[in-house]
């Protein structure tokens, strides 16, 4: 009889230990899921401003943003070429994640181009899309091969202060193809 009671006490302790481990594992997994749920996911696109699913006022605002930024940077930098060379195409960033993106920074990894202007450094969650202006650092606008080798590094912070970095390579500017670089 004592052997049965001892065995039941050992089984109860073992069951308690397994339950404790399961609860701790579940707590950690829930925390990870919450962090992923709050993560901003930034995507880089090449868009035709006249194909954007927005109203005419927003199209005009985007075109004016691009035109004025290009004229201003040409005046300030005396002949520095402004991308993109095709008037209707522009670089756009979009937050497709569920978390807001703060302190956004976009850099181009070569010495040929630089990102000179954002509309905002904050992106609301789920489908906030904004334009960025990319300029050539030399006096010529850059060749098509230079444009198609561009690699962008997009970094931002989430609500909880965690930093995320995404890299994208332009494969074909005219065909509007951008690849994610892991």
Please provide a written account of the structure.
The protein is an alpha+beta fold and about 180 residues long. It is built from 3 helices and 8 strands, in the order αβαββββαβββ. It has a 4-stranded antiparallel sheet with strand order 1-2-5-4, covered by helices on one side. Strands 3-6-7-8 form a 4-stranded antiparallel sheet, with no helix packed on it. A hairpin with a 5-residue loop joins β6 (about 150-155) and β7. The radius of gyration is 25 Å and the shape is elongated. Mean pLDDT is about 75; it is low at about 70-85.
Can you give me a brief rundown of this structure?
The chain has 182 residues and is α+β, with helices and mostly antiparallel strands. It has helices at 2-37, 56-77, 144-148; strands at residues 42-48, 89-95, 102-108, 113-118, 128-136, 151-157, 163-172, 177-181.
Primary descriptors:
182 residues, alpha+beta, four-stranded antiparallel β-sheet, elongated
Strand order of the largest sheet: 1-2-5-4
Shape: elongated
Strand content: 25-35%
Q: What structural class do you assign from the helix and strand content? A: alpha+beta
Indicate the percent of residues in helices: 25-40%
Report the span from N to C terminus: 63 Å
Using only C-alpha atoms, the radius of gyration works out to 25 Å
Report on the biggest sheet. 4 strands, antiparallel
Number of strands: 8
* Individual helix count: 3
- The helix/strand series, from N terminus to C terminus, equals HEHEEEEHEEE
Can you tell me the residue ranges where pLDDT is under 50 for at least 5 consecutive residues? 72-85
Nearest-integer average pLDDT: 76
């Amino acid at each position: 009889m004592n052997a049965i009671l001892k065995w039941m006490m050992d089984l109860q302790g073992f069951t308690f230990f397994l339950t404790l481990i399961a609860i701790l594992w579940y707590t950690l997994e829930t925390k990870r899921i919450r962090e992923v749920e709050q993560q901003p996911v930034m995507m880089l696109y090449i868009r035709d401003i006249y194909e954007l699913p927005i109203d005419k006022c927003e199209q005009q605002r985007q075109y004016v943003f691009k035109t004025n930024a290009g004229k201003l940077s040409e005046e300030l930098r005396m002949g520095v070429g402004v991308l993109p060379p095709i008037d209707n195409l522009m670089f756009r960033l979009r937050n497709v994640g569920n978390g807001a993106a703060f302190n956004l920074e976009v850099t181009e990894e070569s010495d040929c181009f630089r990102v000179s202007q954002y509309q905002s450094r904050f992106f609301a969650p789920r489908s906030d899309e904004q334009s960025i202006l990319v300029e050539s650092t030399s006096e010529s606008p850059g060749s098509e091969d230079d444009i198609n080798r561009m690699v962008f590094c997009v970094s931002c912070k989430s609500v909880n202060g965690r930093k995320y970095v995404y890299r994208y390579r332009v494969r074909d500017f005219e065909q509007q193809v951008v690849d994610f670089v892991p």
